[in-house]
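Exercise 7b. C-alpha cells:
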C-alpha cells in the first residue's frame, strides 16, 4: 500500500504564503499522478490542483489559479503545493492523492479517480 503524508499546513494571515508537501514514504512519485484536494468544514471535498506523472501537465481550479503552483520536487521525493496570496476562503484540510500509471498528458480532478490518500494537513487563513 502506498502511504502519503502531507505537511506544511498552519495558521497564517490573509496574503501570506504556505508550501505544502506530499510525501510517499518509501517510494518515489515517479509513475504516479498526484492531486491536491481540500475540504472546508461543512463543504464537500474539491480538487484544487493536479500534476501528471512527469509534470508535463497541471491543473488548477479557477479559485486558486494564479496563486497556487503544484510541482514535482524530485530531490525531496515530494509533490509540493506552493500557495501564495492566501485568502480566508482557502481555509480547509488539504489532502494529496495519487494514482499509478497516468499519462504525462493527463490529470484527474475527481477524488474517485485516485487510489491513495494522505490524512490531510490543516490550513487556516485568518482575515
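Sequence design result:
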Amino acid at each position: 500500500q502506498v502511504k502519503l503524508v502531507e505537511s506544511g499546513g498552519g495558521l497564517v494571515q490573509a496574503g501570506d504564503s504556505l508550501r505544502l508537501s506530499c510525501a510517499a514514504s518509501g517510494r518515489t512519485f515517479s509513475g504516479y499522478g498526484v492531486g491536491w484536494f481540500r475540504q472546508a468544514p461543512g463543504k464537500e471535498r474539491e480538487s484544487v490542483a493536479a500534476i501528471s506523472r512527469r509534470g508535463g501537465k497541471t491543473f488548477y481550479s479557477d479559485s486558486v489559479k494564479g496563486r497556487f503552483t503544484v510541482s514535482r520536487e524530485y530531490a525531496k521525493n515530494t509533490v509540493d503545493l506552493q500557495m501564495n496570496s492566501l485568502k480566508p476562503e482557502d481555509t480547509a484540510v488539504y489532502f494529496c492523492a495519487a494514482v499509478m500509471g497516468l499519462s504525462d498528458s493527463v490529470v484527474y480532478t475527481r477524488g474517485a479517480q485516485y487510489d491513495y490518500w494522505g490524512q490531510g494537513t490543516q490550513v487556516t487563513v485568518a482575515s
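Instructor comment: The chain is about 0% helix and 50% strand. The mean pLDDT is 94.
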